[in-house]
Structure to design on (388 residues):
């Protein structure tokens, strides 16, 4: 199977590519790198608002909500273009919260949020994890108490990645502490400028920032509740399915660069490209990248046929993020000691990207659910094995 696009779709993708080429500045790339390619920085907002004015941020959304009504396959291809260009490519509002609001939000909520999201005017951060609740999300403790016109929120989140650059928190919170597990959680949109919110940085080994967020008597308007009260766990699972759709192109570009490096570099009198171990390893990466492409576009195909990928999204997230680690490990092996050098070192090769991507690849198999959790989902929902 090969993926192909109609002449109109190809034209659209060429326009996207040309726009990205023309509008990408050094300042945008530097900010995008510093933020780990999440959306919300000053340069990113400038770029994405312009990009989104063409309908390209949410191309498969209907026109009334700021999209172009394209297929999800085209939307996934646009995301690949963005990933390849290393511009901001992780959007909580456009890619995770927006589709969930589209499915479960009230008409008022859709009218309020979807257009600003499609225009890139607002960004959310994911507020799921707490110190005692990561893989086991049902163990949340943060509490929202019904006070009539509003909820009063108290508690703590951690590893909330966009929080320092986003506008709103997409927050899972307990609203019925007496309910059975999974049944007492609600999902809310919280304005990060509300009084009582304290955001504290946690810097990852990748170099970019995630955050702890503390809530003390924070008022959340009732209209910011997503869907039904106490049904939040279900909505969060749905949003997680959308999060587990991972374009690999930024790392595929690194593979192309390493192949070029092997072609042009001689070690101990022998071109690296003739070294049998290097050839075997690079060929293996090409197989994995191609296999990931099929898993990735299968998700788009499902969306285009009215299905929301579930364990299939876990398969792609797991395969993509483990492939990413094979890529960075192999890049390190091929480059040898040069691979360890940071950007800025006069001996660095491939602009020092290998050491940075190596550090980043470690965290890829943790967020949006660890590899063990993805395998559990595949065993339970894909293979229909019994719960433990
Ligand atoms: C860089 C980064 C960014 C993140 N960004 C966000 C964000 O924006 N918003 C947000 O809400 N969260 C975010 N997270 C949190 C992330 O989703 C959690 O770290 C992840 O779900 C794991 O939870 P935990 O860290 O509590 O580990 P734990 O759940 O304590 O897991 C520890 C280990 O036990 C294993 N394990 C746990 N349960 C099982 C099981 N049932 N079966 C088999 N193995 C199991 C895990 O796989 C892991 O290896 C981020 C994390 C990182 C590292």
């Amino acid at each position: 199977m090969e993926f192909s696009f109609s002449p109109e779709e190809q034209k659209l993708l060429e326009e996207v590519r040309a726009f990205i080429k023309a509008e990408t500045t050094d300042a945008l790339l530097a900010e995008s790198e510093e933020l780990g390619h999440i959306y919300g920085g000053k340069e990113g907002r400038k770029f994405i608002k312009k990009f989104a004015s063409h309908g390209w941020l949410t191309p498969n959304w209907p026109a009334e909500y700021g999209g172009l009504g394209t297929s999800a396959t085209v939307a996934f291809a646009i995301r690949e273009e963005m990933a390849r260009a290393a511009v901001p490519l992780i959007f909580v509002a456009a890619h995770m919260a927006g589709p969930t609001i589209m499915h479960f939000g009230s008409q008022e909520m859709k009218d309020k949020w979807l257009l600003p999201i499609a225009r890139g005017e607002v960004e959310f951060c994911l507020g799921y994890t707490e110190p005692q609740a990561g893989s086991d999300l049902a163990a949340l403790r943060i509490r929202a108490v019904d006070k009539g016109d509003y909820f009063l929120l108290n508690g703590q989140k951690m590893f909330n990645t966009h929080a320092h650059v986003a506008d709103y928190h997409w927050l899972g919170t307990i609203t019925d502490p007496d309910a059975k597990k999974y049944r007492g959680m609600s999902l809310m949109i919280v304005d990060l400028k509300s009084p009582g919110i304290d955001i504290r940085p946690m810097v990852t080994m990748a170099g970019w920032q995630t955050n702890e967020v503390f809530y003390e008597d924070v008022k959340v308007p009732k209209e910011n509740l997503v869907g039904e009260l106490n049904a939040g766990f279900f909505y969060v699972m749905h949003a997680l399915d959308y999060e587990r759709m991972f374009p690999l192109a930024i790392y595929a570009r690194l593979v192309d660069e390493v192949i070029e490096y092997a072609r042009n570099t001689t070690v101990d009198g022998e071109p690296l490209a003739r070294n049998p171990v290097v050839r075997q390893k690079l060929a293996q990466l090409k197989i994995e990248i191609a296999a990931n492409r099929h898993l990735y576009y299968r998700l788009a195909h499902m969306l285009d046929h009215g299905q929301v990928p579930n364990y299939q999204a876990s398969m792609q997230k797991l395969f993509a993020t483990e492939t990413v680690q094979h890529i960075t490990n192999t890049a390190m092996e091929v480059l040898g000691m040069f691979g360890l050098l940071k950007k800025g070192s006069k001996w660095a090769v491939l602009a020092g990207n290998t050491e940075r991507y190596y550090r980043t690849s470690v965290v890829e198999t943790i967020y949006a659910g660890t590899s063990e959790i993805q395998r559990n989902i595949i065993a339970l929902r894909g293979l229909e094995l019994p719960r433990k």
Observations:
- The two ends are 37 Å apart (CA to CA).
- Residues 276-304 form the longest helix (29 residues).
- Residues 125-129, 134-135, 159-161, 204, 210, 363, 366-367, 369-370, 372-373, 376 surround flavin-adenine dinucleotide (CB under 6 Å).
